[in-house]
Amino acid sequence: MLFLIQIPKTKSEVKMKQLGAKETEKHNSTNHQFHGMQADAKALKITGWLTGIYFIIELILGFYSGSVAVISDAFHTFSAVGGVLIALVANRIATRPPGKSYTFGFIRAEIIGALLNGLFLLMMAIYVLWMGYSRLKVSIELPTNIMFISAIGGLITEFISMAVMWKGSKNNLNMKGALWHVLQTFVGSIIIIIAAVVIKFTGWYPIDPILGMLFGLVLFVASINIIKDSFDILLESAPKDIEVTEIVKDLENINSVTDVHHVHAWALTSGKNLFMAHLKINKINGHEQVLDEADKLLKSKYDIYFSTLQVEENCRMNDDSKFIDYLDSDSKPTIQGS
Question: pTM, whole model, 2 decimals?
Answer without folding.
Answer: 0.71
